[in-house]
Amino acid sequence: MLLPAKAEVARHLRRYRAWERMMLAAPADRGVRATFEDAGYTLCVLMGKRCAREAANAAERYLRAGLVSYLREETERRPGRRAGTRRGPPAPDRRSPARR
């Protein structure tokens, strides 16, 4: 699993938190909200999460913990999954019907 540089994670997390504060101070400002959502999306992509809040939490854990302990925490959060396993449905069986 490729992980981003800690400096990049820290920079994007600071940006996300700053825009979060600005959005909470001025919730009706569409420009602030759009930039906040962009910052959240970037953090999601960086951390491999679907929700900005989850991405921010994952970024904080990643920065707080060492690499090995972060990976261990992430695999423990998903019970029944082992590192290196495929996501999604199994690949279709492309063998001929006679060989199945």
Q: Can you walk through the features of this model?
A:
With 100 residues, the chain is mostly helical. The protein has one domain. 62% of the residues lie in helices and 0% in strands. Helix 1 crosses helix 3 and helix 2 (30-47) crosses helix 3. The longest helix has 20 residues, at 6-25. The mean pLDDT is 82.
Describe the structure in brief.
The protein is mostly helical. Helices cover 62% and strands 0% of the residues.
Strand and helix layout:
Layout: H1 6-25, H2 30-47, H3 52-64, H4 67-77
Helix pairs in contact: 1-2, 1-3, 2-3
Strand content: under 5%
- Category from helices, strands and their pairing: mainly alpha
Low-confidence stretches: none
Oligomer: single chain
The N- to C-terminal Cα distance equals 33 Å
* Number of separate structural domains: 1
Bin the helical content.
55-70%
Mean pLDDT: 82
Number of helices: 4
- In one word, what is the shape? extended
What's the order of the H and E elements?
Answer: HHHH
The description of the largest β-sheet is: none
Total count of strands: 0
Q: Measured on Cα atoms, how large is the radius of gyration?
A: 19 Å
Give the key terms.
about 100 residues, mainly alpha, 4 helices
